[in-house]
Amino acid sequence: MPHIVYLHGFNSSEQSAKARETAAFLDERGLSDTFHCPRLPPHPADAIAAASALLQTLPADTLLIGSSLGGFYASWLAEALNLRAVLINPAVRPDRSLAAYLGPQTNPYTGERYTLGEADLAALRRLVVERPTPARYWLMLGTADEVLDWREAARHYRGARQTVFNGDDHRLARWPECLPSVLAWAGT
After folding, report:
1. pTM, two decimal places
2. Interval 110-116 mean pLDDT
3. Looking at the domain assignment, is residue 187 inside a domain?
4. In the chain, fewer beta carbons within 10 Å around the N or the C end?
5. How many domains does one find in the chain?
6. pLDDT tens for each residue of 34-81
7. Long-range contacts for 175-178 (Cβ within 8 Å, ≥24 apart)?
8. Who contacts 144 (Cβ-Cβ below 8 Å, separation ≥6)?
9. DSSP 71-126
């Protein structure tokens, strides 16, 4: 069984619902030692550096799972390190969508205070994957995502495996029912 690295989204943490659900699912199967969910720093350059450093310590067949901004990071890492990734409602161009959040931030999970600045948007622009390799990805998309337009991700990852949940939102409440299939895909 390959190792799994879960990358959380913007102003989230390793304590997010999907991260905890994934950890519990793997723990129930005796696979907790294969699960890694780092607390990503709030600044994109630091987040990519932290995730890259973790991945350097893991086997080459590690599977990435990324949610929202974590999906964006997972795409860059998958392309750079020749990995596969499950993307849950991934951000496609966070350098644009996060522009509305410039300024002081507080992570509701950790209480960490920081400032999202223009340098962060520039770092995100440098991480954009213009042409993702479809065979690397499996997208999980909710059509009622209130944060990101699921159709943007569906277009950007055209040709990749995609599961679209009609009426599900950004949190993707149906994530737990996806985990058995994700685990099977991870082992293939």
Report:
1. 0.96
2. 96
3. no
4. C
5. 1
6. 999 999 999 999 999 999 999 999 999 999 999 999 999 999 999 999
7. 175/18, 175/21, 175/22, 175/88, 175/140, 176/21, 176/25, 178/140
8. 167, 168, 169
9. HHHHHHHHHHHT-EEEEES--S-HHHHGGGG-EEEE-TTT--EEEE-HHHHHHHHH
